[in-house]
Amino acid sequence: MKTNLLGQTLSELQILCAEEGFPRFAAKQICDWLYKKRVDSIDAMTNLSKLQRARLNKMAYIGREAPVRCQVSKDGTKKYLFPVLDGHFIEAVFIPDDDRATLCVSCQVGCKMGCRFCVTGQQGFHGNLAAGDILNQMFGIPEFERLTNVVFMGMGEPMDNLDAILAATQVMTADWGLSWSPKRITVSSVGIIPGLKRFLDESQCHLAISLHNPVAQERLAVMPVQKAFPLNEVLALLRKYDWSGQRRLSFEYTMFRGMNDDLAHAQRLVEILKGLDCRVNLIRFHESSEAPYKTSTPTAIAAFQSYLNRNGVICTLRASRGQDIDAACGLLAGKE
User: Fold this and answer.
1) How far apart are CA 334 and CA 331, in angstroms?
2) How far is CA 145 from CA 100, 118, 139, 180, in A?
3) CB-based burial of residue 274 (10 Å sphere; 0-12 exposed, 13-18 middle, 19+ buried)?
4) Averaged pLDDT for residues 121-134
5) SS3 of 71, please?
6) C-alpha–C-alpha distance, residues 285 and 260, integer Å
């Protein structure tokens, strides 16, 4: 089976080059062609000899693949559909906003976590994406040059596919790769503790925790992960790390009418986050036929946000983008 060069780290390419008898510096040359010049064919790597290119073509390929569909929202958001393994599809969402341009990428086909309110979670799990599949969501769109930020908040749970996440973010941040600052990248998680610990030890990218309810039994009712990895244990782990520097910690909190949007929940949220340097992002629930919940009223959201801000928790309301094309939070399904 041929190796996909896109997503390979410098050390991986050094091993590949050594096995093929290439000079060691060839790995750096290949990185330059892949990530700096972003070529889409091995034959374009003109500072490799013809013999080296021929050998590389026999055992590898560049996994650059264009999306098969693009839907455009009335607010300018674009949702791209990419083919991946075994005839499945995944989605990535491009979100332009004044001088920012964010790409929300997927890391799995479907998801194992089964959150009751998430359309992706209702699709089941069909496989992990390789680092090349993740990076192709960036490289494959025409807006690549405009990107200022990437968020791993699309389909899948990043801590359930951590090797690919770490490889992709290494390509994005290394000087032999895209040379991005880790501050431009945010990785989300529902709170898988072993993966979280490794991520926090090995990466400087921002972290966003999907919290959604501060009451344990209520959170369990909508997020099965609460049983294996309780929120109090997740918070205990997060308190062991320094959040006063460049790396930022945030909590995602989807607002459900009559479920988690009253002042009692706001008070509990302030209690459990006390002393933790973080922010809370409120998200309007995006209603769908696959989940029986309703979004909170504007009045309830405003009161909730105001209470948190008055009581020392920085709280913002995330703007809903791309809802008319099912590109908003929790709506990605990877349907052809």
Assistant:
1) 9
2) 12, 31, 9, 12
3) exposed
4) 92
5) strand
6) 11
Q: Which of 276, 336, 277, 270 is nearest to 309 (CA)?
A: 270
Q: Say if residue 334's pLDDT is above 70.
A: no
Catalytic residue list: 91, 329
User: What are 79's strand-pairing partners?
Assistant: 71, 93
Task: Summarize pLDDT for 141-174 with one digit per residue, the tens.
Answer: 999 999 999 999 999 999 999 999 999 999 999 9
Q: What are φ and ψ of residue 279, in 5° steps?
A: -135, 160
Q: Please give the Cα distance from 8 to 3 (Å, whole number).
A: 9
pTM: 0.93
Which residue type does 210 have?
A: S
Which is more confidently placed, 177 or 333? 177
Do 189 and 195 contact (CB within 8 A), yes or no? yes
- For residue 294, give Cα distances in angstroms to 231, 234, 281, 285, 297: 24, 27, 18, 7, 9
